[in-house]
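not sure who needs this but someone in the group chat was asking about Thiamine-monophosphate kinase from Methanothermobacter marburgensis so here u go. i didnt clean anything up, its just raw.
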Amino acid sequence: MPPDRISSLGEKKLISRIISRSASFFKPSELLGLGDDAALLDMGEEYLALTSDLLIESRHFPPTMSYQDMGWKTVTVNMSDLAAMGAALEGFILSMALPDLELESFDSLISGVLEACSYYGAPLIGGDTNEGDEIIMGGTAIGRVRKEFVMMKSGARPGDLIAVTGPLGLGAAGTELLLSGTDTAGFEAAVEKSLKPIARVEEASRMAKSGLVSSATDITDGLISELGELRDASGVGMRIHEVKLPVPPQVSEAASLLGVDPLELALYYGEDFELVFTAPPDAMDELSRIMEVHIIGEVIESPSIEMVDKHGDTYKLHVRGYEHLRP
């Protein structure tokens, strides 16, 4: 019988495997935030928040993406993780493996990194370079958050409402249109969301400082996958309503052209970089007065992810998301 391969697990389960082994080497107090969007180091009144992401040209960047947009996205994916914890952004470290690019292309790549660092207010403070067969961008973002403001995946309670900060499926629609070679005229918003996503840093700061959010994470691997993370961390279940999902018309139009289900793009693909979070009903009312809020469901006791479809029928959803590690 052939040995098991890491591709049989997928990204989420592979990370869980690492975390379970780490727990046997360190005290719980030394593993704050492990398994969340960022690790937390106790600095007294604050946590130092750290996160890292690795992007590979052939897997994470659409073929039409410019070098500048590659640089921008590398920074954004890391800043989105820090934002989901409520952290103020402090700095960015970049490590790259690069083929023998033309200097103009290299400068464009770095321009995208620096543009994003400037946008998020987190300077590029170090890194490393090496030679590779394709572009590999590894980022580490550093932030800080007061202990009373930190947002975690755990904390959701039955009766809380579930909400997102913006539209679902646009990034997926844009990426799939670009990959298919379909004419993207009329789909500018979707293409922009795919090529130049923006981390919801300002919204996350408002959420954290309000103290009203019970749990939160960012949507990079698909809404259902992220709800599964909140469910597992909080020990509860999640129920969402199809008619409440903020799926823009462009997503349905793109899905029709591509011959796919628009809900597949909105629920499972990811790349939206919105935040999904929970809060008690009265707290959600208050949050809706200080930021854009789309309520999509509620937290339930049964440890499942459920969907109420547009006909009022309820069924369970399989927790899966966009897997970067493919067989």
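also The two ends are 18 Å apart (CA to CA). if thats useful
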